[in-house]
Design brief:
Blueprint lengths: L2 E8 L3 H12 L4 E5 L12 H6 L1 H20 L14 H25 L3 E4 L1 E8 L2 E8 L2 E12 L3 E3 L12 E2 L1 H4 L8 E5 L3 H12 L3 E5 L11 H14 L2 E3 L3 E7 L4 E6 L5 E6 L1 E4 L3 E3 L32 E3 L10 H15 L13 E3 L4 E6 L2 H6 L4 E7 L4 H5 L6 E7 L5 E8 L2 H13 L4 H6 L8 H10 L8
Parallel strand pairs: 1-2, 1-6, 2-3, 6-17, 8-15, 9-10, 9-15, 10-11
Antiparallel strand pairs: 4-5, 5-6, 7-16, 12-13, 13-14, 18-19, 19-22, 20-21, 21-22
Helix pairs in contact: 1-8, 3-4, 3-6
Bound molecules: flavin-adenine dinucleotide and 1,4-dihydronicotinamide adenine dinucleotide (NAI).
Length: 476
């Protein structure tokens, strides 16, 4: 007989594990199905984010930044260092240690909240008497569990391109790119999105010569144009070679190298040889093998599960969250949807303002934004005022030798309401929190300007940009 739960969550990434914890906090009997196995063959919770996404990439970004600082930046501070050696094995092992600590931490949280981990692949096998049946196939065999409420949080995987076989040794997606055994001399990256720029930065800092080939003619099209322009200037100066408007042709993996043939922006045939290649051209939702037909649920033409503003699918009691549904593929968006759905199941009325979901790109300097870009607002015909303030004019940034970039605050011309905040600069991932808070509370630039900001701190740049939107920056 099928074991019955109040709610079954399929997938234990940041969407699923957080949904499971919140539902358990609210008194529900919860099961979470998860099949992920780490390279050691051990089952692991945490999904893409903890195993091969946010956490390991940020560990390598931090390590490679230390290496880069010692090699190129500490001399500015009057510190000279002898020869600097890289122990890549140790760096990768440190990253794996952090992943292991974090994934084990979720096992602890599951035990603490009395969440049953159903180990294996989950798929729908039917519905009867108001209950949905989910089959779980794992190493220990196959069992069936049932619940009237199911949260699908199966996440996403890397999109691959036809004719480019990813083996995660020489041609890698995010999984292999986080575990290269040596620093490649020549690294080719297809796609200059978030992964291309973050992992490109890691391997460039560690010594690779990095070339990024991007299909679109514009760089970082989702960013505010002024931020994208500044990022282009800084990243290319750092040594990332980025070619825009290319069309990738044949990719030939020979004994010695991998040759990518492509057409450049001018239509000329080109080819380049690399030792390793990373394919980072977006991600696709994990909806195949869920047997959604068994409950009569369809996916859209791109494989996403259609949901309404509250993550409800077309089937009563079935919700879907995170990368498997519309909206940005971000861990914190998945988490917030997990909390919201658990609270809806408990009869509460949570709400997510998707316009207030922040974005961060963890390059150096970091890029972060919330709300709309100046070009999007102008396209809507909205009258806006913009205030921009550079880190160069901030004492703390100069002291830290982190003076690149700026904060830009965009406000409604008439009401002064903050409509978007765009940052390129050191600490942007943390500075953006103030902007998110301001927008959630429908603050005006005047509100930000009147809040006392510690001196000297990078947060003063946010205040000055708010003041600049009214042409009254104090330190410029
Ligand atoms: P996932 O994390 O993908 O988890 C889904 C889980 O479901 C997986 O564990 C999978 O094994 C399991 N599953 C799938 N199907 C089944 C099934 N049938 N049965 C059982 N289990 C199943 N986002 C950020 O916000 N910040 C970052 O810095 C960031 N960095 C990233 C870096 C990289 C390299 C990558 C690849 C992604 C990054 N992301 C980042 C994106 C982030 O990882 C995802 O948005 C997030 O993990 C989505 O969470 P999720 O719970 O929807 O899905
Ligand atoms: P992406 O969508 O950010 O970027 C993909 C890039 O590849 C785009 O610029 C696209 O134009 C380009 N591209 C697509 N097809 C191409 C082709 N055939 N040839 C050349 N270029 C091509 O996707 P990415 O970098 O793979 O990351 C996936 C997702 O993971 C991100 O969208 C983001 O949601 C998430 N992520 C978030 C991070 C963060 O929050 N810091 C870090 C890393 C990933």
């Amino acid at each position: 007989m099928a074991e019955r739960f109040d709610v079954i969550v399929i997938g234990a990434g940041p969407g699923g594990y957080i949904a499971a914890i919140r539902a358990a906090q609210l008194g529900m009997k919860v099961a979470c199905v998860e099949k992920w196995k780490n390279p050691k063959g051990e089952l692991a919770l945490g999904g893409t984010c903890l195993n091969v996404g946010c956490i390991p990439s940020k560990a390598l970004l931090a390590s490679s930044e230390e290496f880069d600082k010692i090699r190129h930046h500490v001399s500015e501070h009057g510190i000279s260092v002898g020869s600097v050696k890289l122990d890549l094995g140790k760096m990768i092992a440190r990253k794996e240690g952090i992943v292991s600590k974090m994934t084990k931490g979720i096992e602890f949280l599951f035990r603490k909240n009395k969440i049953t981990w159903l180990k294996g692949h989950g798929r729908f096998v039917g519905q009867a008497d108001g209950q949905y049946q989910v089959e779980v196939a794992g190493d220990a065999g196959t069992s069936v569990a049932e619940a009237a409420r199911i949260i699908i949080a199966t996440g996403s995987k890397a999109r691959h391109l036809p004719g480019i076989p990813v083996d995660n040794q020489r041609i890698c997606d995010n999984e292999g790119a986080l575990s290269l055994g040596e620093v490649p001399k020549r690294l080719g990256i297809i796609g200059s999105g978030v992964i291309g720029l973050e992992l490109g930065s890691v391997w460039r800092r560690l010594g690779a010569q990095v070339t990024i080939l991007e299909a679109l003619p514009a760089f970082l099209g989702a960013c505010d144009e002024s931020v994208a322009k500044e990022a282009w200037k800084l990243f290319t100066k750092q040594g990332l070679a980025i070619e825009l408007g290319v069309r990738i042709g044949e990719v030939k993996a020979g004994a010695k190298d991998i040759v990518i043939s492509y057409t450049d922006a001018k239509g000329a045939a080109q080819s380049q040889s690399f030792d390793r290649v990373i394919v980072s051209v977006g991600r696709v939702p994990n909806t195949e093998n869920l047997n959604l037909e068994a409950i009569g649920l369809n996916v859209d033409e791109r494989g996403f599960i259609p949901v309404d503003g509250h993550c409800a699918t077309a089937k009563p009691g079935i919700y879907a969250i995170g990368d498997v549904v519309r909206g940005p593929m971000l861990a914190h968006k998945a988490e917030d949807e997990g909390v919201a759905v658990a609270e809806i199941l408990a009869g509460q009325k949570p709400h997510i303002d998707y316009n207030c979901v922040p974005w961060v790109i963890y390059t150096a300097p970091e890029i972060a934004w919330v709300g709309k870009t100046e070009q999007a607002l102008k396209a809507e015909g909205r009258a806006v005022r913009c205030g921009q303030f550079p880190f160069m004019a901030n004492g703390r940034a100069l002291g830290m030798d982190e003076a690149d970039g700026f904060v830009k605050v965009i406000v409604d011309a008439a009401t002064d309401e903050v409509l978007g905040v765009h940052i390129i600069g050191s600490g942007a991932s943390d500075l953006i929190a103030e902007a998110v808070m301001a927008m959630e509370f429908k603050a005006s630039a005047e509100d930000i300007a009147r809040i006392c900001h510690a001196h000297p701190s990078l947060s003063e740049v946010v205040r000055e940009a708010a003041l600049a939107s009214d042409k009254r920056a104090l330190n410029m």
